[in-house]
Amino acid sequence: MTVTVYMLRCADGSYYVGLTKKPVEARVGEHNAGVTDGYTKSRRPVELVFTETFERLLDAIERERQIKGWTRRKKQALIRYDYAALPDLASRKKQ
């Protein structure tokens, strides 16, 4: 079983981070169809901007929580795959 952590860019420019055991394209389709009430329902359409796949559910849950706690700038660096910039964008780092 694989689990995918994904990030969506919503129509209002905000980001949504989630995880799914389904094919990620199917999950994005559910977000765009407004299948469930939640953050993205009033912010459609959404666009898939980042994914990471994990073999273990607990690893995916940990990564989802980590990314959800990040600043907008740090999420944008992740979307660009700019891993070198991530430590400098840490919210706890002293400026």
UniProtKB/TrEMBL annotation:
A Pfam family: GIY-YIG
CDD domains per UniProt: GIY-YIG_UPF0213
PROSITE patterns, A to Z: GIY_YIG
InterPro entries linked: GIY-YIG_endonuc, GIY-YIG_endonuc_sf, UPF0213_domain
Domain GIY-YIG residues, every copy: 1-77
Domain of life of the source: Bacteria
Family stated for the protein in its record: Belongs to the UPF0213 family.
Designated name of the protein: GIY-YIG nuclease family protein
